[in-house]
Amino acid sequence: MDHSNKILKPNAANLAHCAELLRDDEVIGMPTETVYGLAGNALNTSSVRKIFAVKGRPLLDPLIVHFSDLAAAEAHIETNDSVRQLAAAFWPGPLTIVVPKQASIPDLVTAGLPSVAIRVPQHPVFRNILKRLNFPLAAPSANPFGYVSPTRASHVAHTLGSRIQAVLDGGPCDFGLESTIIDLRNPQVPVILRHGPVTAAQVNKTLQIDVRSHNGAGDDTAPQSAPGLLTKHYSPTARVTLLAHGETLTADAAPESGIALICNQKPTWHTDQANIFWLSETGELNEIAHNLFELIQRLDQQGYQQLWIEQATEAGLGHAINDRLGRAAAKHEAE
Q1: Nearest-CA neighbor of 146 among 58, 215, 63?
Q2: Kindly report the CA angle at 94 between 92 and 100, in degrees rounded to 5?
Q3: CATH number at residue 246
Q4: How many degrees, rounded to 5, is the angle at CA 273 between CA 267 and CA 279?
């Protein structure tokens, strides 16, 4: 069923309407600069439960809480100098910080843990809504749990349109991948839990500390310290098979119909096969990240049974791209 009637232009009337929905403890789809979020009042357990129910998300997977600025967040968290340094460098923007929480943040938001993931978003539509409210917004990606994250309003309407009242249309997301998450519960030992648009090198330069990366191993049945850490995630219906970066295919080895090949850039051997796709003309990482989820969503909706996807180079933003691809492929690895 087409739910495009749920998509609203971000004019004054619709912004006011959506703010009122949020005050009434409803949840709505909203754009951020990373991916579209499913937003609700982070301080109200009724709203938070709706977020989990609409997504089908397990309660052990915590939510990110979005504030208008660091000052607004400081009323609900325990801060430190490292938080202030990163906030000054990257907020508003695609960086999430895990810190100890105060009692005002419901345990339901944080999977029962005494810490919370917080962010100050950059997208003007999201910021406009926050300014109209006197509470922060919990907003995980606006898709069924485990599915590919949405980067357009139409993606949200397609998967969740029957379960929510509105999707604010802010256009395609700038980054196309979820935020970087850094754990600052111990500011002396910062750890990147999820790679994203803000790279480890940028965080190192800001904090003047060597930042470790989460090793990727964890217990999927235990409360997670941050979103995006479960082994199986970001998965389309189609089976995802990963190809090594630069793995050379030829026209003779190209996939048959029913299988789509997604390359970082246009293959030199490319013919006119309808099932060959690329994410960037030049292989530029920002462009690959921006286009990745949108292309996967589109091909999945077109009914491809398998997606062969080339991994990115393991540098900079490539770490984030390959993290998402690895979790997308994990859905079928045990089958």
Answers
A1: 58
A2: 85
A3: 3.40.50.11030
A4: 45
- d(C-alpha 292, C-alpha 324), whole Å: 10
Burial class, 162, CB count within 10 angstroms (exposed 0-12 / middle 13-18 / buried 19+): exposed
Q: What is the spatial distance between Cα 303 and Cα 258, in angstroms, rounded to a whole number?
A: 8
146 & 39 share domain = yes
Q: Are residues 107 and 253 in the same domain?
A: no
**Counting Cβ atoms within 10 Å, is residue 215 exposed (0-12), middle (13-18) or buried (19+)?**
exposed
Domain shared by 49 and 120, yes or no: yes
Same domain assignment for residues 153 and 295: no
SS3 146: coil
Would you write out the chain's pLDDT as a tens digit for each of its 335 residues? Answer: 688 889 999 999 999 999 999 999 999 999 999 999 999 999 999 999 999 999 999 999 999 999 999 999 999 999 999 999 999 999 999 999 999 999 999 999 999 999 999 999 999 999 999 999 999 999 999 999 999 999 999 999 999 999 999 999 999 999 999 999 999 999 999 999 999 999 999 999 999 998 988 876 678 889 998 888 887 788 899 999 999 998 766 656 667 778 999 999 988 776 667 788 999 999 899 999 999 999 999 999 999 999 999 999 999 999 999 999 999 998 766 54
pTM: 0.94
Cα–Cα nearest to 110, from 101, 119, 120? 101
Assess whether 196 and 289 both reside in one domain. Answer: no
What is the C-alpha separation between 335 and 330, in angstroms, rounded?
A: 10
268 and 171 in a common domain: no
The tokens for 24 are 């009434």
Q: How far is CA 34 from the centre of its chain?
A: 6
- The reply to whether 173 and 53 lie within a common domain is yes
The count of domains in the chain is 2
Domain with 287, as residue range(s), is 239-333
Residue 320 domain-assigned (yes or no): yes
